[in-house]
Write a structure and sequence with these properties.
Elements (H helix, E strand, L loop, with lengths): L5 H11 L5 H28 L4 H29 L2 H17 L7 H30 L6 H22 L8 H18 L15 H5 L2 H30 L4 H29 L1 H21 L4 H9 L1 H19 L5 H30 L2 H22 L3
């Protein structure tokens, strides 16, 4: 494919699958990842601002990530067997909004842990099913996925930069209200996404157990776990890490934005990169770059050019990795296992990986230090590289 711009991706998508509701699907990603554009950079500083220490922040982050281990699989099973995937997504999002609204009324650790558990269950269950819905809409044009998913990156950039500027003159106390407003926007957008392409899949039954027994599938789930495990120090403490080294809220927001701007450009190139290098080589590149990225951030936080390079590497450690892993998941899990396959990928990576990583970094950050935390992340990427090199093939 020669399409390397967003507009060309959109045009190609419409030419190949004229029934694809491009803007409705894109709008969902736009608002969903705008929430992440607030959560990832600013939720940990918010928790510190209301009195929580590193262990408490790590634990709350682990609880949120941990809900991804169970929730996507439950809703994935329901959606694969009953159909009506969008209806399930809408119910999950509505319940997530209701749960998070309780966050406006407490700063107690126990209550926040309970709210995060309920909110996270429904919030984290929605995205894997929407990914499955998007791929169902795309049909044979699954390579055009990045042309839709790219709007999530744009939403992230707008949110992180806007809030960073806002926080230069305002406190973090209004963060829960801002997040709740965006959650309601996601729910509203979900209402206009059509149900017709997400009904039951009428194919010969495929045993999920037989699929996950394959060596390549086990390897894919393991490397997905390790990649997100390695991201835990970054996702949970990067903003605090920069603030402790004297950087402002606006600068911190700008650094997060740089990483996702790089991600946007790589999404535009993904169809060509997949054709040129293949999925396995791309995975190996991702783990090589991730290993270097965590060492750069750990050792050179006070060297601005290297700090920027570390953020640009997000294009590879998240952008290329996610686009590659999700296509491998779509390829390995077919028919009635599709929704549960996306759920397993989400559970093992953003669920178990971030949850275990969050627990470990919550304890290591103060006891061993930030450098040791990033060094451990780098080691995890070396292990993942070896697994991918030995057992994963296109």
């Amino acid at each position: 494919m020669q399409n390397v711009t967003l507009d060309e991706l959109r045009v190609t998508l419409h030419e190949q699958t004229p029934g694809v509701p491009y803007w409705r699907l894109s709008s969902f990603y736009l608002f969903y990842f705008a929430v992440l554009g607030i959560f990832l950079p600013y939720w940990s500083p918010y928790l510190r601002s209301i009195g929580f220490d590193a262990k408490a922040i790590g634990l709350l982050s682990a609880i949120l990530a941990g809900t991804k281990i169970i929730a996507p699989n439950i809703l994935g099973w329901i959606a694969d067997h009953r159909g009506q995937r969008m209806r399930i997504i809408r119910i999950a999002l509505l319940l997530a909004c209701m749960a998070f609204s309780c966050m406006l009324f407490t700063t107690s650790f126990v209550w926040m842990a309970l709210i995060i558990t309920v909110f996270g269950f429904f919030w984290n269950a929605a995205l894997p099913q929407f990914e499955a819905t998007t791929f169902t809409h795309l049909g044979d044009s699954s390579h055009a996925y990045t042309g839709i998913r790219i709007w999530g990156s744009i939403g992230f950039i707008v949110a992180v930069v806007s809030l960073g500027k806002y926080l230069e003159s305002h406190s973090l106390g209004q963060l829960p209200e801002i997040i709740l407003a965006l959650l309601l926007a996601i729910f509203i957008v979900s209402i206009i996404v059509p149900e017709r392409a997400s009904g039951p899949i009428h194919v010969t039954d495929v045993s999920l157990f037989k699929v996950i027994r394959q060596t390549r599938v086990i390897a894919l789930l393991l490397v997905a776990f390790l990649m997100q495990f390695s991201h835990a120090p970054y996702y949970i403490f990067y903003s605090i890490y920069l603030a402790d080294h004297g950087y402002s809220s606006l600068f911190i927001g700008g650094m997060w934005a740089i990483s996702v701007i790089a991600e946007v450009f790589i999404f535009m190139l993904m169809p060509r990169l997949i054709t040129w290098l293949g999925l396995t080589r791309l995975l190996l590149i991702c783990f090589t770059v991730a290993c270097m990225r965590w060492l750069i951030i750990g050792y050179f936080v006070d060297v601005l050019p290297l700090l920027i390079i570390g953020q640009l590497m997000h294009a590879v450690t998240f952008g290329i990795f996610h686009a590659t892993a999700i296509q491998l998941t779509h390829r390995y899990f077919t028919g009635r296992t599709q929704g549960r396959g996306q759920a397993l990928y989400s559970s093992m990576s953003f669920g178990a990986g971030l949850s275990v990583g969050g627990l470990m970094v919550g304890f290591s950050w103060n006891s061993l230090g930030s450098l040791a935390s990033f060094q451990g992340a780098s080691v995890a990427c070396v292990v993942a590289f070896l697994i991918a090199w030995r057992w994963i093939r296109d």
